[in-house]
Amino acid sequence: MRGPGRPGDGPKASFDAAAGWLRERRVLLPGASRLSRMVGNVREATNQRLWDTLYGLLNTGQRTVLDSLLTVPAGSRVSELDRLRRGPVRVSGPQLKWSLDRAEEIADLGMGELDVSGIPPRRLAELSQYGVDGEATLLKRHNDARRLETLPATAVHLTTRAVDDALDLLEVLIATKLLARAERETAKERMKTLPRVERAGAKLATAFQVVFDTTSEQVDPNTGEIRRPEGGNVGGDVGAD
To answer: Which of 155, 27, 31, 179 is nearest to 84 (CA)?
Structure first.
């Protein structure tokens, strides 16, 4: 039976969608248990096709590389998959370098080159979520098709996420470290020059006050004209002697 439910819908959603599809077309509904089994068979077949599709995208070398992600290296407590799916935890320069190295290491797996355009993005996201959140030891117990369809989806997701993690960390570093430091340095320099600016401002204000007091005494309050100062020109008589 070809039901109308979308790949990835839960069992109940698929059952309801199938029942609604049959009602709309006035098809005699089978018993609930029989319809449930039919929906379950369709879901299982759909999942199997998805697993086979992803599995078929991988060559022998890529399958070996992905399987190696589930191993725990000597001297380590976690698998390679556990290590690579952990993002940065601090805002620092060394952490940014680590993030860039992580993004490069994940990119070197080569999973970003897989053509997954034929797989619904929603299903790919669900598979990658299982690989990102699930335990590597449990994933290792699945059969080849189930395991090697989850791992490439996870690797494709991590390829993008690792770059995003590095860019996000760089943005935070610029905002909190570089720009904030520049603002602090500018404020310090401003504080250093403030006393000199205040002294120069005070001298300038005094000079302007002297000029204002001198010229205001020479302004005729009736006409607004400036009178010549008593006792001759301010600058002295030009051409004297």
So the answer is: 155
